[in-house]
TrEMBL record:
Coiled coil: none annotated. Keywords: Acyltransferase, Repeat, Transferase. It comes from Aeromonas bestiarum. GO terms for molecular function: acyltransferase activity. InterPro entries: Hexapep_transf_CS, Hexapeptide_acetyltransf, Trimer_LpxA-like_sf. SUPFAM superfamilies: Trimeric LpxA-like enzymes. The keyword Acyltransferase applies. This is Acyltransferase.
Amino acid sequence: MALQTILRKIAMNLLNQVHSSSSNHIHLSPSARLRKCAISIGDGENHFQVDEDAQIRRCNITIEGLGNRLVIHKGCNLRGLVIEVLGNNCTLEIGKNVKNTGPGKLSCREEGTRLLIGDNSLLATGITMLTSDGHDIYGTAGTRINPAKDIIIGTKVWIGQEAMILKGARIEDGSVIGARSIVTGRIETASIAVGNPAKSIRSNVTWDEHLTY
């Protein structure tokens, strides 16, 4: 193992609380910065990747189960998030240059489930994303009726404060989700959606991270 790699691992453990077994695959770019994070990766050939120039601060990251993947791409700036991948063969992927403005939760759970966030998206404080209900519900025949479902978020999506993005949600490119909205289905491209359940109230919009005043 190269000396530089050893020094990076030592620095990561000094600056963060890290628990992982040797069976997992951890890939951290030399230019990635993780600070004051709690990282727990259970034994099970799991994959954790942070690409170049990503900044991850005060996040609580948990991966438990077999064959799961958590990928944080180039230029992300994340702070105060609870990020969990719990189950088997699940994927949580955060695209390039995604930012958040405060605490929130990203949860990808169960079997083969995906939570995908597209490039250049903005997550406001207090947001929650859940691919699972967290508990089983059964019908009268004894068959489970609430399996997990993927969450797919397109590129350049702005999710407002305290919005909830629940299993089965698909938010297309360029859309805006209003504060405290609850998304359970598909939101059209370049639209504003609000309410519970969230519905589109305007289409053909664009948005900019910078406020004009």
